[in-house]
Design brief:
heterodimer, A: mainly alpha, B: 306 residues, alpha/beta, Rossmann fold, Alpha-Beta Plaits, 4-stranded antiparallel beta sheet, 10 helices, 35% helix, 28% strand, elongated
């Protein structure tokens, strides 16, 4: 086992947030389920909807899936963007760089530890998500798509955060830029899609390439996977491909940066 | 062991190293002194494979620090000026992590960790968190960690910074012992007395270059500042005739001499001056390295003490 992973996990699990964060995470997901259920079942004319268990199940499933992705996007920079900067701030990076650990070992140790912790959160939310199977309207396929889409998006964003951590000297800068990057990923494709749609809408039917403008949006990967994977697999695959390329590019640049990181050590 | 030639390193417009050449033989304990910004830390970082030179080349035991950095890291132990340790790890955990990072396995790993604990005097505190250790103990732990993989060359950047006098004495004893075991060392320090005490040679560096020749550190060499009343000609003649006096400089009634043979030779010199009828009003023997440093880097050799 890569010693970096063991070290990172040991240090991470000693932090107070090691137990605090999963507790808060499950509390929020639980609250989403309760609020959604109460809102739907207590509004006027809700009896008809309540009888339609499948509709209720789909609604709760989507609410939890989006809440889960939102929470993990909030958490990802905390674990990834500070991973290397903390070594610079504590003056421990030189010790790693002068050991026989290669830059790729250091990168993988940091990323794996961050992803394992986020995987723990994702897994802990699984029972809440799977609860909706009891209502009907949601099957293992939807569950798998939601988990796969969330995992790929979170892994890519974490890899980007780790790159920023290699690039900057201070955790506060790396974390701020990672959050800004996530906001840009969310907002820019929405704006671009809206502008392109308005342009092409005047001259012709919506072209088949237009949905791909939304591919970098983290929530689009989840939405298109759940709503239209069978009929519109292209945009879903395109979105996941975008995040896979983002992951690979962030990995390459981060490893290169670690290899040259001695001047910041 | 170290062969650095024409090293150049720039940080923007600043030339941290400007064609520096340095050679250190196996088994030597070499001191590196110079004012702040002289390029000492940059040189050590290059030799430790942390920083790549812009020009020139450096090799450790024949392995290029850029082209064969992995081989170099296996040979080198590096201690930075601010040695960072993971405060939230226990002493044993920290040593085990670095043993793994140097790919030590099985019995060799166990022996290295136990040996490091014993060397640092921390065997009974192996389960203590690093943050609970004193600065001196942390320094010892860092050195023990640096020695885990049995390096043949130690690169120490200001190792005595922040240590109290007792910890410094202990550090000097440890470094001498390690050198006695055959480990070559390059030590950067501003504490000249420490270097004079332990180094076999001291190299002066300024503005990224060697400041003159490397001078052999002779711990038994003292520079004596002598102030005479009246004519100093007789004293100068007597001083220049002595075999244990290497250098004589005079400015009016003040004379500076470098005498070999330690305090005994200085005492004999003073006795002979007085016996020869010279009116000595001040006789101030100092370590030779401090005086050479003052001469090399602009301190007035003959200036009175504050």
């Amino acid at each position: 086992m890569n010693p970096m992973i063991r070290k990172e996990l040991r240090q991470r699990m000693r932090e107070r947030r090691a137990w605090l964060l999963p507790s808060l995470y499950l509390l929020v997901l639980g609250a989403v389920v309760i609020v959604f259920y109460m809102t739907v079942t207590t509004r006027p004319g809700s009896l008809e909807i309540a009888v339609q268990g499948a509709t209720l199940g789909q609604g709760i499933f989507l609410a939890v899936a989006y809440a889960q992705l939102s929470l993990l996007l909030l958490v990802a920079p905390v674990f990834s963007a500070g991973a290397v900067t903390i070594e610079k701030e504590q003056r421990t990076l030189a010790g790693l760089l002068t050991s026989l650990l290669g830059p790729a070992d250091i990168w993988w140790g940091k990323l794996a530890a961050a992803l394992l912790y986020q995987g723990l959160l994702l897994a802990s939310g699984l029972p809440v998500l799977a609860l909706t199977l009891a209502f009907g309207g949601i099957g293992p396929r939807e569950l798998g798509i939601a988990l796969a889409s969330t995992a790929i998006v979170v892994a890519a964003v974490s890899a980007a955060g780790l790159y920023f951590s290699c690039f900057f000297r201070r955790s506060v800068h790396a974390t701020s830029v990672t959050y800004a990057f996530i906001v840009a990923l969310t907002v820019v494709p929405l704006v671009a899609h809206a502008v392109l749609a308005s342009l092409v809408g005047r001259v012709a039917r919506e072209p088949t390439w237009l949905p791909y403008a939304m591919a970098p949006n983290p929530f689009y990967a989840l939405s298109i996977g759940l709503f239209g994977a069978a009929e519109r697999a292209g945009p879903w695959v395109g979105s996941l491909a975008f995040f896979s390329v983002l992951f690979a590019a962030a990995a390459v640049f981060a490893v290169r940066n670690i290899a040259r990181g001695g001047e910041q050590a | 062991m170290i062969d650095a030639r024409d090293l150049v390193k720039r940080y923007g417009a600043l030339r941290a190293l400007d064609g520096l050449t340095l050679s250190v033989e196996r088994g030597e304990l070499v001191g590196l002194v110079g004012p702040n910004g002289a390029g000492k830390s940059t040189l050590i970082k290059i030799l430790a494979t942390l920083v790549h030179p812009d020009a020139g080349a450096a090799a450790i035991d024949g392995f290029d620090v850029v082209g064969a950095s992995g081989r170099v890291r296996a040979l080198v132990g590096y201690m930075p000026d601010v040695p960072g340790l993971y405060q939230d790890m226990r002493v044993r955990e920290l040593l085990e992590f670095f043993a793994d990072a140097f790919r030590l396995r099985g019995a060799r790993r166990r022996a290295a960790v136990e040996g490091a604990l014993a060397r640092a005097g921390l065997a009974d505190r192996a389960d203590t968190f690093v943050e609970a250790l004193s600065l001196g103990l942390k320094q010892r732990l860092f050195i023990a960690k640096t020695l885990l993989h049995a390096p043949r060359l130690l690169l120490l950047d200001e190792p005595a910074t922040g240590l109290d006098p007792l910890a410094r004495i202990e550090l000097r004893r440890l470094l001498r012992a390690l050198n006695g075991e055959g480990i070559t060392m390059l030590i950067s320090s501003h504490i000249l007395a420490d270097l004079e005490d332990i180094c076999s040679r001291v190299t002066f560096i300024a503005a990224g270059r060697l400041a003159g020749e490397s001078a052999a550190a002779t711990p038994r060499s003292l520079t004596c500042e002598i102030e005479l009343l009246g004519d100093s000609a007789r004293a100068l003649t007597l001083l220049r005739e002595r075999a244990d006096v290497r250098m004589v400089e005079s400015a009016g009634a003040r004379v500076a001499v470098e005498v070999t043979g330690g305090p005994e030779a200085a005492a004999a010199l003073l006795r002979d001056l007085v016996a020869a009828g010279c009116a000595v009003v001040r006789f101030d023997p100092r370590g030779g390295l401090e005086e050479r440093y003052r001469r090399a880097f602009g301190g007035a050799a003959m200036s009175p003490r504050p």
